[in-house]
Amino acid sequence: MNLDLREIKSFARRSMTENLGLKFVALLITLGLVTIVRFQEKVERWVDVEVNVTRPSEISGLLLTSEPPDTVRVSLRGRPSIIESIKNGPMKLVVMDMSNREKPGSFTFYFEPEMFDFPSGVEVVGINPDVVLMRIERVVTRRLPVRVKTHGRLKSGAQLDEEPVVEPSEVTVAGPASLVRSLIHLETEAVDIEGLGVGEHHVDIPIRRTEGLSFKYSDDLEITLKVKWTPGQRMLAGLLVRTMGDPEAVVEIRPTEVAVSLVGAKVALDRLDPGALVVQIDLDKAEPRKGGVLRAKVEVSGLPSDVKVGSIVPETVLVKTRVSAVPKAK
Fold first, then answer.
1. Are residues 180 and 95 in the same domain?
2. Each residue's pLDDT tens digit, 288-308
3. Which of 119, 156, 196, 251 could make an S-S bridge to 320, C-beta 3.0–4.6 Å?
């Protein structure tokens, strides 16, 4: 048993130490073959390729209205080192050439493997997306009215006297047929009217830009805004009629009270004190009637400048006086 163990150990020692040169050469050959096999092994990887769009020329009267993709994802098969150099190198481009389109309408664009410029030995095995639906429209021109857009609030109690006036009132617009034909008017950028008071105001403002449209005007639009006080109406009833002149001559007034309708700026009407009004008759202007009776017109004074009398009910009253006080008919 001990002999057999010694022989086994001796055999193992000879196996490890004899013919070392040949064994080393065999190891090198094996490593080389493995390297060659791995170097020639192909893998699949994906890369993103930027899309460069060639649009129809301006003189064609056509316009690309659908949005092409920014990139497409391409699956490649090839040696790992080459594919890694593609992924880590400069961004590749693929061209969507639509410059030769002659008619408007929808069409399908196909990305084909031969459209991509990759090194020899690299195979394109997949493209995502490989099909894109595109649309080209004819460019049309149209003249449209301009509407003024505002934001903010005028000074309290004020309002626009009329629609803002814009100069020019119409602007020529050009763009894809479907968009231009759907427009009723153009809008300006929002005009800030916050806190504007009574009077006439002028501001220059551009048209609000819309993607896909071009406008044929050089300067900003001139906007005129006219602001006035908000009109109102107020009715005051039960106002006592007074006499201008000699009150001792008056025996009786019928009726003794009237109702007055006032019109003017609402803010002025709201703050008006009815006690400041003077409702009176002038006997010297009265119309004589029989039996010492006069018909006198009612007058109202004491009003602010922006408030006027709309109506007085009744407009005249009957005044009974002493006969000697009755003015002589003219």
1. no
2. 888 778 999 999 999 998 899
3. 251
Segment 120-138 mean pLDDT: 94
Of the candidates 142, 140, 90, 99, the one whose C-alpha atom is nearest the C-alpha of residue 117 is 90
Cα–Cα dist 189/146, whole Å: 11
* Entry field: residues in the chain: 330
Q: Does the structure show a pLDDT above 70 at 93?
A: yes
Are 124 and 113 in contact by the 8 Å Cβ rule? The answer is yes
152 pLDDT band, cuts 50/70/90, is very high
Could you give the percent of the chain with pLDDT greater than 70? 85
Phi, psi of 315 (to 5 degrees): -75, -25
Residue 111 one-letter amino acid: F
What value, to the nearest 5°, has the Cα angle with vertex 108 and ends 103 and 109? 100
Does residue 221 sit within a domain? yes
**What domain count does the chain have?**
4
DSSP structure string for 99-156: TT--S-EEEEEE--GGGS---TT-EEEEEES-EEEEEEEEEEEEEEEEE--EES-PST
The span from the CA of 127 to the CA of 114, in Å, is 11
